[in-house]
Amino acid sequence: AQKVTQAQTEISVVEKEDVTLDCVYETRDTTYYLFWYKQPPSGELVFLIRRNSFDEQNEISGRYSWNFQKSTSSFNFTITASQVVDSAVYFCALSEADSGNTPLVFGKGTRLSVIA
Amino acid sequence: KAGVTQTPRYLIKTRGQQVTLSCSPISGHRSVSWYQQTPGQGLQFLFEYFSETQRNKGNFPGRFSGRQFSNSRSEMNVSTLELGDSALYLCASSAEGWRDTQYFGPGTRLTVL
Known about the structure:
The complex is a heterodimer of chains A (116) and B (113).
Chain A: E1 3-5, E2 10-14, E3 19-21, E4 24-26, E5 32-39, E6 46-52, E7 59-61, E8 64-69, E9 74-79, E10 88-96, E11 105-106, E12 110-115
Chain B: E1 5-7, E2 10-13, E3 19-24, E4 31-38, E5 42-50, E6 53-57, E7 64-68, E8 74-78, E9 87-94, E10 103-104, E11 108-112
Parallel strand pairs in B: 2-11
Antiparallel strand pairs in B: 1-3, 3-8, 4-5, 4-9, 5-6, 7-8, 9-10, 9-11
């Protein structure tokens, strides 16, 4: 069965620090998709990135970067030079392909607080 | 394109009542999924609809039901509300389903008294 673990429940950093959010997943499928979402206090889940299991290239988007390593089943998310606006709950999610139409499975989320 | 919209945004009900939540997906998206978010259980999948058919269902009691209309708009219904149904209910739409990115609406926060 698929599973996503975000071991860090809460992280607090001072503005301009770099911070890495960890995500470890479990799946028996060879084809799957990994996602990161951001949930600000307003409640809406905001899509950040989607990565398929055959693409292990790291991705950088502005201050955000993602490190996907199949060897360790991890898909970590780094925010460089954090800002107060980055304060939110961040969710990692997994969707399997080989098993058919399966829904997204989310981790428990990591609450990030960036202090000015 | 307009994003996913959900109505109402907030709802207060009492135990035993029923409630209907509405979700309008992004134009052109045919798959609509519903999730329940609570502090204790996190984000849990309720069901997914595609072309007016329920394609997938999570592990929730039969009090939770849904439907999808021909324009892809979806509703979910919870009957005989319980205190434990208090949650944020999130709707997500995607083009075809799990292969595609799911885009979420702002959610409906349901409080059961």
